[in-house]
Amino acid sequence: MAWVLLLGKWMHSKSLRVLLALCLLGTGVPVAVSQQKLETPQQTNQRIHELAGAFQTRGGDYQIGSGDLLRIEVFDVPDLSREVRVSESGYISLPLLPVRVRAGGLTAFQLEEKLAELLQVNGLVRNPQVTVFVKEQRSQPITVIGAVRNPLVYQAIRQTTLLEVLSQAGGIADDAGSVVIVTRPAASEDGADPQAQTIVIKLRDLLESGDPRYNIPLQGGDVVSVPRAGIVYVVGAVEQPGGFVLQSDSEEMTVLKAVALARGLLSTARPDDAVVLRKDPESGQKREIEVNLKKVMARQAEDIRLYPNDILFVPDSTGKKALRRLGEVGLAITSGLVILRAGR
């Protein structure tokens, strides 16, 4: 008799999974959602830390910035050898050169080559040998804000990459979205400030390999922002209860998609008695929205959209008692849940 009951439970569980898969196909939600690789924010942050260390820039790659004091020596031409400070717009001036020279963003070696070329082109020195020393570095502030563990202003004294500053900020927060935005103020030769440059990088691309196309070098004045995307929680009689991070604020998460991310229902689930707990962000009032998952999966009821901080509760055979406890505990039930986000 026992094996008959076990077989019945297994078939019930299997039929729920098959039904869910068929429903996902019918509603346009990819079945692959339920097979998507998920990872915790801690695993993501460990990856950020490892890649930041592996691709850390060398000290010799320091990029000259505004406010730096440079010692420029032209061999055998003492009149051209001197100390100069880089202007706020990133330029320096040398006697006899008809133009100001862009130094900001260059390494000392790159500036040496540039100055040697200008001296030769302008007929000032036949075979110039130029040496540039960074005598005094002014730290270059890089601001990290948004959904990171520890927002900060990072004082860079050498070239620094995106992964490095994210690592310094302790990595991403639980509700971080799927992109990183770098806002860079633009400066021109006359000191004007045209429209800032905005660079959007997908977090998944950045973490694939630390590719320099995505792990970009940062400059003084850059603002690194990680937008918040929100979390939807799924608890109760599901295979993998947890909080699931939305890819962005605009991502449309539904009840069926949330169940798929939670790896489906347990054999003891009561899908016809599910409920969505929602807290109004303005009034603070809590709402309970009844959801008949059976009807939703049978396409006889609307697949309800979920919003950040919503909690989808699927009761099991102790449904009524659990639901009463749920009403008492309210939104605090998410405490201690594993937070999961799309992996690589």
Please outline the major beta sheet: 7 strands, mixed
The rounded distance between the terminal residues' Cα atoms is 45 Å
Number of helices: 8
State the fourth-level CATH superfamily of the largest domain. Answer: Outer membrane lipoprotein wza domain like
Helical/strand content category = alpha+beta
How does the overall form come out from the CA principal axes?
rod-shaped
Stated plainly, the CATH topology of the largest domain is called Outer membrane lipoprotein wza fold like
**How do the helices and strands follow one another from N- to C-terminus?**
HEHEEEEHEEEEHEEHEEEEEHEEHEEHE
pLDDT below 50 for ≥5 consecutive residues: which ranges?
1-14, 24-34, 327-331
Question: Given this structure, which CATH class of the largest domain is correct?
Answer: Alpha Beta
Q: Fraction of residues in helices?
A: 25-40%
* Count of extended strands: 21
**What Rg, in angstroms, do the CA atoms define?**
29 Å
Mean pLDDT, to the nearest integer, reads: 80
Roughly what fraction of the amino acids lie in strands? 25-35%
Q: Tell me the domain tally.
A: 3
CATH architecture of the largest domain: Roll
If strands are numbered along the chain, what order do they take across the biggest sheet?
1-21-15-14-20-17-18
